[in-house]
């Protein structure tokens, strides 16, 4: 990590600890504020003009920190936007379309919340009870996204995520999740309204000067889709922003999952065709001039946990999700 190079940083859940979702991995709001203090003390927070100038000049700003927030969570309206506004800081917010059209959480977030509410071992056993895993496996997706877990300790939590995010056929996975969500949460439409920022709240974020970008329609592994399915995910994400009054002159995109094997050359061509100015991965490294010269469609991002104050806090004494 070169201290002089620009660094994009990605955040997801930013919230206080909540008993209801006791095991949800999140950045505590106080730690988020402390991390912003840390960035402001040693770096320059990149604003919209500096970011657009970087894309036009092919020169990332030195010692720049570009803040990005994925998934359109209610957290971002309640805790993030106001804190950034107080600091005159700018950020990119990437929002998926599907929850606003279906009233259901994205599959990846359903998994997070199911893991957040109880024993990971019991959840894994329940999944295996509901489905014949061998028949539900989609061998064609074995390589799409698997790098997310190759070097990770194979805990029950990781096994649940790997199984549901990558190894089960989407229809099989969704059927399992439908049953688990009804049992655990009841009214998913109400949970969805509580979990994601509303359209009015997203418009409020945009009205404060922040940028809203696309995050596909349903957060699927793009490399596992046909070209037509990929096009529908990408263009559908931009269509959603336009229909919601959130379209911006600068078209930005964040890849679902964002690892190198979760998108492919077809994805890159489709993003170009859709007029995308920049697209963000989760490859953790500095942003270099070549990243912009090569089209700015594979912009790297560090996770917030790569910097001071960015770690998930330890659970309260006595809590164990295993």
Brief synopsis:
44% of the residues lie in helices and 10% in strands. By secondary structure, it is of the alpha/beta class.
- Roughly what is the average pLDDT, rounded to an integer? 91
Distance separating the two termini: 34 Å
- Mind telling me the C-alpha Rg? 19 Å
Number of strands: 8
CATH topology of the largest domain, which one? TIM Barrel
CATH class of the largest domain: Alpha Beta
Helix tally? 14
Low-confidence stretches: 139-143
Q: What class would the helix/strand composition place it in? A: alpha/beta
Second CATH tier, the architecture of the largest domain: Alpha-Beta Barrel
What's the name of the CATH homologous superfamily of the largest domain? Glycoside hydrolase/deacetylase
> How many distinct folded domains?
2
What fraction strand? 5-15%
Assembly status: single chain
Largest sheet: 6 strands, parallel
* Helix coverage percent: 40-55%
Based on Cα principal axes, name the global outline: globular
The topology string of helices and strands comes to: EHEHEHEHHHHHHHHEHEHEHE
């Amino acid at each position: 990590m070169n201290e002089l190079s620009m660094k994009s940083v990605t955040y997801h859940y930013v919230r206080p600890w909540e008993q209801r979702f006791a095991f949800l991995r999140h950045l505590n709001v106080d730690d988020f504020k402390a991390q912003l203090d840390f960035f402001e003390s040693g770096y320059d927070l990149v604003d919209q003009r500096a970011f657009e100038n970087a894309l036009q000049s092919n020169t990332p700003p030195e010692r720049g920190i570009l803040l990005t927030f994925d998934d359109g969570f209610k957290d971002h309206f309640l805790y993030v936007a106001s804190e950034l506004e107080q600091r005159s800081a700018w950020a990119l917010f990437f929002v998926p379309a599907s929850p606003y059209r279906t009233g259901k959480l994205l599959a990846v977030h359903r998994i997070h919340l199911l893991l957040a509410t109880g024993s990971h071992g019991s959840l894994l056993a329940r999944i295996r009870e509901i489905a014949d895993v061998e028949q539900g496996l989609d061998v064609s997706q074995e390589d799409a996204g698997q790098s997310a877990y190759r070097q990770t300790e194979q805990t029950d939590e990781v096994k649940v995520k790997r199984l549901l995010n990558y190894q089960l056929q989407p229809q099989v996975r969704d059927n399992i999740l439908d049953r688990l969500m009804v049992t655990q949460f009841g009214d998913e439409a109400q949970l969805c309204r509580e979990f994601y920022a509303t359209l009015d709240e997203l418009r409020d974020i945009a009205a404060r000067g922040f940028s809203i970008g696309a995050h596909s329609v349903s957060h699927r592994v793009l490399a596992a889709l046909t070209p037509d399915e990929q096009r529908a995910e990408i263009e559908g994400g931009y269509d959603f922003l336009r229909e919601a009054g959130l379209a911006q002159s600068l078209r930005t995109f964040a890849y679902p999952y964002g690892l190198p094997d979760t998108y492919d050359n077809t994805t890159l061509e489709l993003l170009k065709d859709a007029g995308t100015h920049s697209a963000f991965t989760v490859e953790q490294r500095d942003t270099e001039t070549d990243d912009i010269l090569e089209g700015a469609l594979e912009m790297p991002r560090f996770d917030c946990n790569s910097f001071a104050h960015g770690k998930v806090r330890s659970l309260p004494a006595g809590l164990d999700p295993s």
